[in-house]
Design goal:
This protein has 294 residues and is an all-alpha fold. The chain contains twelve helices and two strands; from the N terminus they run αααααβααβααααα.
Length: 294
């Protein structure tokens, strides 16, 4: 590699490229929906599915990068650019065409732009803070992540479209979306801490009730894809707001973060396995304890 050239790792950036591809095709589908209103909502369903698919790719690229120790400044910048397209431009155009256009040009444009502006500034702030090692070690996001904001807006739009095609009366409920976009804009620009769940990896072990519950949630999401994603994203949205009032023990259990558990309550791996520490292990633990106290 030539001097000065950035490190470009294949697999993480391949996931990011998948994210960008989903966002681009979602925008194309929104434009097709604008030109063919007689197609009911078929183009919008595809656009929503692609934005949710971009959320999956965005989740995977960070996991793959951390698993292979392939985190790089190039990957972080590339990911932010892809996120701005998939979770900023695409959702803003989708909601503008479905709802905001009926509010008048100026009001609709301003609400859509406010969401896009807040998302762009949120991504820029994340990149700046990611350069600070102390910010990275906290394991939290400052402000609502833009993929989660996009997930809330498109999953709720999916639910409203499903109600409309089911010949149910929506009435003025669809005008909740503009106020929701303003709320999401504020949360993205705020300093409210949202968990990143980076501590949950492929090696994470949970109790039987947690595993059964996770499987049931997955099955319910697949069977009720019209409304279940909206519930999951809204739960994450509310959890970040209510998080300061949740006990540290519950937060540690939900987020699998040992830093939230008091030292006296943390489990001893040797006690769990029934192993008797050797003399070398005892001395190593003593040395480590002395180093931690410095």
């Amino acid at each position: 590699m030539k001097k000065g050239q950035p490190k470009i790792f294949l697999l993480p950036n391949l996931m990011t490229a998948g994210n960008l591809f989903c966002g681009f095709i979602a925008i194309v589908q929104v434009f097709r929906g604008m030109q063919a209103p007689e197609e009911v909502h078929s183009y919008y369903y595809v656009a929503i599915g692609l934005i949710l698919g971009a959320c999956v790719f965005d989740l995977l690229d960070g996991r793959v990068a951390r698993m292979g120790n392939q985190i790089s400044p190039f990957g972080r910048e590339f990911d932010s650019l892809a996120d701005l397209i998939s979770f900023g431009v695409a959702p803003a155009l989708l909601v503008y065409d479905i709802v905001l256009d009926g509010l008048g040009d100026r009001i609709g444009w301003m609400i859509a732009f406010a969401y896009l502006l807040a998302g762009a500034m949120r991504l820029a702030r994340f990149n700046v803070m990611a350069e600070d090692k102390e910010s990275e070690s906290s394991g939290d996001f400052t402000g609502l992540p833009i993929p989660a904001a996009a997930g809330v807006i498109v999953s709720l739009t999916l639910f409203l479209l499903w109600l409309d095609e089911g010949q149910r009366e929506i009435g003025r409920w669809k005008y909740v979306l503009p106020f929701l976009m303003l709320l999401l804009s504020y949360l993205m620009a705020s300093t409210i801490s949202y968990p990143s769940f980076k501590a949950i990896t492929w090696k994470t072990r949970r109790t039987m009730p947690w595993v059964v519950g996770a499987i049931l949630v997955l099955v319910m999401t697949v069977m009720n894809w019209e409304w279940m994603p909206a519930i999951l994203f809204i739960i994450y949205l509310i959890y970040g707001i209510a998080r300061p009032w949740v006990s540290r023990r519950w937060r540690a259990e939900i987020e699998q973060d040992d830093k939230l558990v008091p030292v006296e309550n943390q489990k001893d791996p040797a006690a769990e396995t029934g192993e008797v520490p050797t003399k070398e292990g005892f001395l190593r633990n003593q040395t480590q304890g002395q180093a931690d106290s410095l």
